[in-house]
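Workshop exercise sheet. Pairs work together: one partner reads the sequence aloud, the other fills in the structure field after running the prediction. Swap roles for the next sheet.
Pair: D.N. / O.F.
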Amino acid sequence: MSLRAASWLAWSLFAAWALLQVGAMVLVARGVSAHDEYFGLAMVGFAVVGAVLGSRRPGNPIGWLLLGIALALGAQVFAEVYVVTPTYPGRLVIAWIASWLWFVWLVLAGIVIPLLFPTGRLLSRRWRPAAWLAVSGLVASVVGAAFEPGNLALTTPIENPLGASGTAADLMRAVSLLGGGLVTAAFVLGGVSLAVRFRRAQGVERQQLKWFALVGLIMLTGLAVSAVAESFPGRWAEVLGGIGWSTFLFGFIAGIPAAIGIAILSYRLYDIDVVINRTLVYGALTVTLAAFYLALVMAFGLVLNPVTGESDLAVAGSTLAVAALFRPLRSRIQAIVDRRFYRSRYDAARTLAAFSDRLRHAVDLDALDTDLRDAVNQTMQPQHLSLWLPGRS
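Structure field:
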């Protein structure tokens, strides 16, 4: 496909996604509500990045996959809003399609992209069974959802017009269970594929994968904060849980397409190692402080409630304790992260610290010259090093 034809096709698919969103918003303006009617608009990142990659890198299927995800989810959102009104034409057909369409974008986003990113090819021929597992799981899930009796998987209760009966109904339920198991297994293999690819990658591909890893860290941090918050009662736990869940959703909606676009088009734009380092540090710091904060609120509340009858003092005390712990805890986590993931930088910092200690007691210029050269060689590793001291030849 030529670049011109690819560009025309990519932006045509983007226009189709935009039309679906406009149609959904027109229905919403008429008073129709389906609870998730605005979620399709949130997929603008997938649609835009997919169109850009499809028009500029037509040989890489990642852009087309992003467009497919945006279109499938956009069509599902439009259908969810459309089928709320019983009098609209073709309501049952659209509802039936929407009931299994969500499997398509879920498999593309959660399995196919991890298997192919960033080159657009599988890691090796050994990973073909994982791809076939994903396809088989998708087909089984779609068939099961399409013909399983009962209400369709929609927010609006609608009886499946093609629901099977008798023995066929039991068969469709079994097919649905089989599809769910296959999709779950393929999802795990997709994550393993990314990890193996990252471990083997070098140069450009490794830098590209680091952008994907960054978003993964942000999403995992959000899930961890949400999980910690759910373990504690109270309104502050609910607030932190909401923040964690919102972080996860933001990572999926905006972070994944942005990371993919930067990785494929401009992976050298930023020092990704610094960004990942900071994400690891502040992600671990956020989870630790959140757990510590909630535990203190509960402890202070139990102690002070019999006296004060309210928890404002407990919240204030917990906030001050967390603020006091921020700097020492951050330094400790930074050291752990550098020692585990950035060993060369950690060793360089130790070398400079040792040189600083020796410098305080150095009186011999020749010894200082040797120590300085050793420290620079170990930390910076230059190809050439020269030292000029005034008054010495």
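Discussion prompt: Residues 56 and 285 are 39 Å apart (CA to CA). What would you look at next?
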